[in-house]
Every structure is written in structure tokens, then in C-alpha cells.
Amino acid sequence: MKNISIGILFSILWASASVATKFGVESVSPLILANVRFFIAGILLLLFSYTFKRQAEFRLPLGKEWTQLVIFGLLNTTIYLGLYVFAMKYTAAGIGSLAVSTNPLMIVVFSAIWLGRRPSRMEIICIILGMTGIAVATYPLLKNAYTTIEGLVLLIASMVAVSMASVYYATVKWKLPNLLINGWQVFLGGLFLLPVTLVFSDFSTARLDVQFWASVLWLSLAVSIIGLICWFYLLRIDTVKASLWLFLCPLFGFFYAWWLMDEPITAYTILGTLLVVVGLYMGVMNSGKLKIKS
């Protein structure tokens, strides 16, 4: 029961990121929102780790660990979340949540490329189903300015970046605890994004109002900290079962978008979501079978 509760909580929090981001970019430039979020989440995680965790493994990174954290932070925070936040200014919140759920499918492809093997027929089918689902769900939203082609391109690029980050993470033999890895990669990712934010963001139009702070605090505390703690807990128990909780993210995501942002739920939305969920389910089950055989 505990694992189920944590899984549902993860899905609820993870799916909320797109709507929270949409609210935030109404007050400030996307890059400003991203940078403030990264610094709050990173600093809080590092302060907690070094203040309350007395175990020997909670130490400063050493030698090549800094390089590993820099690469991971660039891919997973600077590029992925930087592009994602920017994409959400031009993309429907529901589509943002739906796209995030395709991450495991892309990981399968990039891991195959990284390991020098050809993706299996099943893996290719799963990717096609996932991408087709996003296209179907997006189609009616392109007509009414909820989503633009530019926003969709940025969103897909962000999914590619986070998939590469996940594959890289899996290839590194980390000696640091997950809390420290996440804290440092978010903080470093914020540092790398800061020059871009200072050069390209319009600070004159920024409104640091209640909506902005509610958005950034929710993204920092609920999504980047509590959501990731739940995710790491689920991964430690069973990687394949953890991925199953991603099935709920599009459902919660479209509900939030309809409830809080008045985005329409159409037959295209339902069909597209079903295609993504089927593709994700087939991909997760296929990867689970491969792991059992090996």
C-alpha cells in the first residue's frame, strides 16, 4: 500500500509540472522561471544533504565526479528543462505532460545507439506509437493557438536531451547518494543557464507576483524535490514497475490542463493519450523481459 501511495503521489506531482510552468511563464520570461527554480531546488537539496545527513558518503564531489555532474547537469537541467520551460510558453499544458511520458521510449532508442546495437522491431513500434499519439493529440490544438509548431519542436528537443541525460546517468558508476547527485546537477545546471538568461531574458516585463512565486515554489519543492524523491524510491524497488507510474501522468496532466487552464479534451486527446500509453506499456514490458532474460 505504501508503494502504491508513493507511486500515485509521484504521478500527481510529475504531471503538474506543465501546468505550473504555464502559470509561471505568464509572469516572467521562461528562462527567468527556470533559473529561479533551479537555484531554489539545488540549494535546498544541498543544504539538506550537508546539514542533516552525517553519513560518510555525503561529501563534496571529487576529481572526475565534477565532470560527471557537469555533463549530467548540462543535459538534464540546462538543456532539457531550459528547452522544456521555453516550449511550454507555446505549447498546451496537456501536450507537455503527454510528451514527458514518452521519455522511457526515447531512452530505449538512445541506449541502443549508445551500446552500439540496432533497436528491435518492438522498440521501433513503441516509438512510432508514442510519436503518433503526440501528433494526434496535438492536431486540434494547432488550430486555436494552444500549441504552435515551434513549441512542439522545442518540446521534442527537450525530450531528446533528457533521454540522453538518462542514458548517460545509467552509464556512470556514481558513488555519491542520489540526493547529492540531484542537488549538484540542478544547481550546476542553473549556473550554466544563468548567462543565457541574463543575455536573452526581458527583465523589464517580469512580474514577481503571487502567481510567479506559487509556480516557482511548486516546481522547486513539489516537483524537483518531493517528486524526484518519490521517483528514486520507486526506482530502487523495481525499475520496470516504477516506469508504469508514468502511465498516469498524461491522465493527470490533461485533467489539470482542463481544470486549471480550460484546455479542451477532445476525441483526439483521448486517442492520442491511448496510443502513447499503449506504446509506453509495450516498451516497458519489452524492456522488463529483456532484463529478466539477461
How many discrete domains? 1
Order of helices and strands: HHHHHHHHHHHHH
Distance, first to last CA: 30 Å
Beta-strand segment tally: 0
Summing up helix and strand content along with how strands pair, one would put the structural category as: mainly alpha
Largest sheet: none
Unreliable runs: 289-294
- The shape is globular
Strand fraction equals under 5%
Q: Indicate the radius of gyration in whole angstroms.
A: 19 Å
Count, helices: 13
Percent helix among the residues? over 70%
Round the mean pLDDT to the nearest integer and report it. Answer: 87
3D architecture notes:
The chain has 294 residues and is an all-alpha fold. The chain has one domain (2-293). Helices cover 78% and strands 0% of the residues. The chain has helices at residues 2-15, 17-24, 30-52, 64-88, 93-100, 103-114, 121-138, 149-171, 178-200, 210-237, 239-244, 248-261, 267-293. The longest helix has 28 residues, at 210-237. The chain starts with a helix and ends with a helix.
